[in-house]
Amino acid sequence: MINIATSHHATPSFSEYQATRHFGSLNGLRFFCIAAVLWHHGPVWVGLENAPRIAMRGFVGVDFFFVLSGFLITTLLLREASAHGRFSLKGFYWRRFLRIVPVYFLVVTMVAGYYIVIKGETQYLTQLPYYYVFLANFLTSDIPLLSPMWSLAVEEQYYLVWPLLLMLLPGAWLIPVLAALILINVIAVIGWLTPLGIVAFDAGPLRFAMFNTTYAPILIGSVVALLLHRQNSFAVLARLLGSMPACLLSFLVVLALLQWLPDDMRGWPNLALHLAMAAALVTIVVREDNALQPLLSFSPISRIGEISYGIYLYHLIALHIAGIALGRLGLGTQVWLILLVYCVVSIIIAEISFRTFERFFLGFKHKGWGRVSA
Hints:
Number of helices: 15
Number of strands: 2
Oligomer: single chain
Strand content: under 5%
Distance between the termini: 18 Å
């Protein structure tokens, strides 16, 4: 692992950025993303009177996860191609499968089994197959406790298509193609494609519609990776966003937008927010000694960020458990206590899962198809 040790006043170096194999602030960023999601699904903000708008927007933690994911996946693929002349599609899909699918399938199967087999709610059999083929983002209704799985569907659809485009398209086409896809995503959400006859349609329990800007943030993250991978564009971004003040300012801009953007953020407001998130991401990856590094690399914060995928998968189960347990103790109306207990239970379950079930599969990550050729 090589870390950047750039002077606080120096412009970040492209060679040091390229040499960095571990971005030390990203797990800290994941912590705040998952904290926002836990807050959003908790019971506190719903009952707050005259709550600031930002308190009602914890769902954007998923958007920031998308930006981060698009950046990191694309960066890894670009660096593998630079080191070996190309990247391995089989290796990429194998590593993503091991990281994403086993624990995801475990959670889907457990929850579906609980509702369909144990509780006998067989009406959910119609939806179940679509979770396994990652089409949950198009379901018109969800199996209880599985509503967050739409975001996993978005990620898997991205993983399926983007590496192929990255491999097949000429380098000069990549950013224009991504920009076009982002634009199409935004105008589809606004409804500007309807006059062209491109409308939503139903297929069984699925409704194929661009219900929100779900693909734009992950594609924006990919654009960031491409720009930082090229020396000229890296130099521009490093000058603009590589200073200590820029780091603090960029995250303040994200917070300000969360408070001041209109209630309906679909379309251009969401695009503005995602671009601000992308700028904030740049500030913490172009230099390891960024202004937020002490906070983002703080060990407990970093660890929770590291297991945030598991927390995301398990957190509604933990909320269900906390609600039932505290309800039986006569504490079912103590919303702050429910929030605390369900967050702690989410972390405990995710930590156990990471150390046991997930680690078993991750042990195969660099074996077989996952092995990178020398």
